[in-house]
Amino acid sequence: MHVYANPARFLKIARPLTAWLGWLGAVLILVALWFGLFVAPPERFQGDSVRILYIHVPSAWLAMGGWAGIAAAGLAQLVWRHPLAAVAGRALGVPGAVFAALALATGSLWGRPTWGSYWEWDGRMGSMLVLFFLYLGYIALAGAERERDGEGRLTAIFGLVGAINLPIIHYSVVWWKSLHQGQSIDILRGTSAIAPQMLWPLLGSAIGFTLLFAAIVLMRMRAELARTKVEARMKRMAAE
């Protein structure tokens, strides 16, 4: 847990890793989207409109995964006092919000030809909208605590409490009547209801977006640490 607690040790690894993850993620996204948009066949009932899933599904996964990371960072901060936990949590906020917004936008565009409207108060859409607003609240709270030179404990608690929404999003299609279909990919069982010609581009896109997401988070963590270092130096100069 504390192997990379030292910022200098973390930065030594994060600098080259950021570039590798970013470039690899970008290449995977381009290749996967090319196969998904131009090679994979149209879906039998939804036709070509289903191709938006290659962006929509990874965006939804990362919006949820980003908040899971925020909750994990909050737990590490509150329980183990990990020095980089608060930095990681703040770094996850904006990218997570962007992917949540992207999931909502692409879902609405997909819903227009499928359901006949851009928005329905479906359980999954509603809970994803709640997640987006949770991100906005987290970003605002984290910024306010940082300006007051706080430890970020309230932000960490907020992240843990907000994680309650994650199982609601996942199981909303089971608990309530939903326009969304059930689980198509079961990672634990290694099964999928999606045709291989569509599955592989989807997995490639998901991996690519995940690598790009990780690169953005690492870049934001590095920027946060650099800002903290500059602020500490300015305070020392002002005290002299």
From TrEMBL:
Belongs to the CcmC/CycZ/HelC family. The keyword Transport applies. Required for the export of heme to the periplasm for the biogenesis of c-type cytochromes. It is a multi-pass membrane protein. It comes from Allosphingosinicella ginsenosidimutans. One of its GO terms (molecular function) is heme binding. Keywords: Cell inner membrane, Cell membrane, Cytochrome c-type biogenesis, Membrane, Transmembrane, Transmembrane helix, Transport. This is Heme exporter protein C. InterPro entries: Cyt_c_assembly, Cyt_c_biogenesis_CcmC, Cyt_c_biogenesis_CcsA/CcmC. GO terms for biological process: cytochrome complex assembly. NCBIfam families: ccmC (TIGR01191). Its main location: membrane. The chain crosses the membrane at residues 20-40, 60-80, 92-111, 123-144, 156-178, 198-219. It is found in: Cell inner membrane; Membrane. One of its GO terms (cellular component) is plasma membrane. Residues 24-180 form the Cytochrome c assembly protein domain.
